[in-house]
Automatic annotation (TrEMBL):
Pfam families hit by this protein: FA_desaturase
Main location: membrane
Domain Fatty acid desaturase: 56-173
GO cellular component terms attached to this protein's record: membrane
Protein name (database record): Fatty acid desaturase 2,Putative fatty acid desaturase 2-like protein FADS2P1,Fatty acid desaturase 3,Acyl-CoA (8-3)-desaturase,Acyl-CoA 6-desaturase,Fatty acid desaturase 2-like protein FADS2P1
PANTHER family, per database record: DELTA(5) FATTY ACID DESATURASE FAT-4, FATTY ACID DESATURASE 2
Transmembrane segments: 58-81
Keyword Oxidoreductase carried by entry: yes
Domain of life assignment: Eukaryota
Protein location: Membrane
GO biological process, one term: lipid metabolic process
Keyword set, alphabetical order: Lipid metabolism, Membrane, Oxidoreductase, Transmembrane, Transmembrane helix
Length: 205
């Protein structure tokens, strides 16, 4: 079975040549449409309290305590919880920011939707380690373009996206994991110098 993709200003389309079907993928970064944007489910937006999702979070924590307190006691349960949350948070932050922070992100200048995604994200090289370490988010470009696609299928559409970008003259950037992590540190250094210069210019002059 063969597939090809095309796009317009707000969507990407996947066409199946055999069955002549297509799948439209909604734009990311939209509350209710982007599976990565779920804060509206846990925070108060406007005047509405998301009671159902708050209940899910409460039930999760009760279940966690019910399972671990009898085995570890209260003290070690809290230590375990904080330990895996700290490790998980740092791991997640490094992986996700290596695809985003070093890229060009600016005010909206009315670029087409596909170009905005490619200018704001990058991929990492594919390897067994990179696939495992990043949870296949080394295919971050494809994840942005197809946010509902299972992550184990993202590698399949990379060649299609690359050919589409080549056709339209859009840069498609793939970095090594080491370079991506180094870019985080360089980006933080640049940001720190920018804030330091602004602080000294306005408060110490």
């Amino acid at each position: 079975m063969e597939y090809y993709i095309t796009y317009d200003c707000s969507r990407i389309y996947i066409y199946d040549n055999e069955n002549n079907t297509d799948e439209t993928v909604p734009s990311p970064h939209v509350i209710g449409k982007d599976p990565d944007v779920r804060l509206d489910k846990f925070l108060v937006v406007g005047q509405v309290m998301p009671v159902e999702d708050l209940a899910v979070m409460i039930i999760y924590n009760i279940k966690f305590l019910f399972l671990f307190v009898p085995m570890l006691g209260w003290g070690w349960t809290l230590v375990y919880y904080e330990a895996f949350r700290v490790i998980d948070s740092m791991w997640f932050a490094w992986v996700t920011q290596s695809n985003h922070i070093p890229m060009n992100i600016d005010h909206d200048d009315n670029k087409p939707w596909l170009k905005l995604q490619l200018f704001a994200t990058c991929d990492h090289e594919q390897s067994l380690f990179n696939d495992w370490f990043t949870g296949r988010l080394n295919f971050q470009i494809e994840h942005h373009l197809f946010p509902t696609m299972p992550q184990h299928n993202l590698y399949k559409v990379r060649p299609l996206v690359q050919s589409l970008c080549k056709k339209h003259g859009i840069p498609f950037q793939i970095k090594s994991l080491q370079r991506a992590f180094g870019d985080i540190l360089r980006s933080l250094k640049d940001s720190g110098e920018l804030w330091s210069a602004a602080y000294h210019a306005h408060h110490l002059s």
